[in-house]
Amino acid sequence: MIDIKKLNIKEKVKLFKELAKEISSKGINGDTELAHINSFEKELLIKHGGSGTINLETGLPQYFGGGGGGGSTPSSTTNVQTVREAPGIEERKLGLMDIAAGIAQQPVNIPALQVQGLGALEQQGITSSGVTGVGQPTLQQGITSVQGAQNAAAMTPSSAQFSQFYNPNQSYVVDEINRNLQQQQNQLAGQAVNAGAFGGGREGVQQAELQGQGLRAIGMAQQQAYNQSMNAFQSNQGLQAQTGLQSGQVLGALGQSQQGMAQGDINQLMSAGGLQRQLGQQALDATRQTTLQQQYEPYQRAEFLKNIYAAGPTTQSSITQTTAPGSNPLAQAAGAGLGAYATYSALNRQPAAIQTAAQNRVG
After folding, report:
1. Helix, strand or coil, per DSSP, at residue 63
2. pLDDT band (50, 70, 90) for residue 161
3. Which residues lie below 8 Å from residue 270, measured CB to CB, with a gap of 6+?
4. Percent of the chain clearing pLDDT 90 (strictly above)
5. Pair 29, 50: CB distance under 8 Å
């Protein structure tokens, strides 16, 4: 027989493991563990279905059938953990989800984009811009006036034109010259009669000379009248040319001014009309934006509630559910208490096993 007291701790542990393995194999109905238990643990095992009977082979108490029932080896373990909000918060959040779902099911009426059309002023400006040559008539008058001035400067007077500047008293001048010539001729004839030479050659020469003087005087008078008339005509034509040129320049400037004023009017109409159209477009955009805000206002309220709930209390409660179709965990915990008693009984009933262990130690 082995003296257990002479064994060291390692030998005792080795002997205990061999004995515990042998004795544990004698369990029935799934009992596979030896354990130390106290009276509380014993009552707890029986309370949870443990048999509390004596194993016929080992003489040890056995508690099969408790806890999970059957004492079979666990085949699977399922852990289900549910994390939930505090009841009041959870109810409100679920309500918010219902509200959001209801809102999402309602179609949103997106207003169409609108473009403001041309205003009356812009239409008038466009119509006016299609009218070309506003100052053309006035400019054409100026061109005609300049051309008339050029023609006047280069004009050769006709008889009718020249006669307009002829001195109407010129005939009286000629008549006066002829009258004087006639008087001189009469005087010359009277002198010849007194001298008894009337009709003679000397008288004829004197008469011819006197006639020539008269003709020369008439020619000189006519030449002077012609020169005066021509000077008057040329002065008049020069004045007409200068006046026509000045008038043409003024009319040309007026035509350009008319064209510029018309262009300025068009620009002003387009600018004022553009401002009106811009204001009209802003009104259309503002109306559309207002409609969009009204359509999405429920979404904004839902978002507001979500932010409030997210910032509110977030205390959570946990519910953990475990399913383990195996042996009773309390029976496993009590295995250590039963082990000592089983070992003691085994030492008394299994001398052959102890002898074998001692022989192994000696060997």
Report:
1. coil
2. low
3. 121, 122, 125, 126
4. 5
5. no
Q: In this model, does residue 238 exceed pLDDT 60?
A: yes
The reply to whether 344 and 257 lie within a common domain is no
Separation between Cα atoms, residue 121 and residue 271, nearest integer Å: 9
**How far is the C-alpha of 72 from the C-alpha of 65, rounded, in Å?**
9
Judgement on whether residues 333 and 306 belong to the same structural domain of the protein: no
249 within some domain: yes
Average pLDDT of span 307-312: 75
Same domain, yes or no: 65 and 142: no
Question: Domain limits at 205?
Answer: 120-311
Q: Outline where the chain has alpha helix (H).
A: 9-24, 39-47, 87-105, 120-129, 136-153, 159-163, 170-195, 201-311, 329-333, 335-349, 351-362
Cα(43)–Cα(37) distance, integer angstroms: 10
Q: Do 280 and 345 fall within a single domain? A: no
Predicted confidence (pLDDT) per residue in 58-78, tens digit: 788 887 876 554 444 444 556
How much is the pLDDT for 325? 45
The Cβ-side half-sphere exposure at 102, using a 13 Å CA radius, reads 9
The Cα diameter of the chain in Å comes to: 231
pLDDT at residue 223 tops 70: yes
Higher-confidence residue of 261 and 210: namely: 261
User: Do 341 and 305 share a structural domain?
Assistant: no
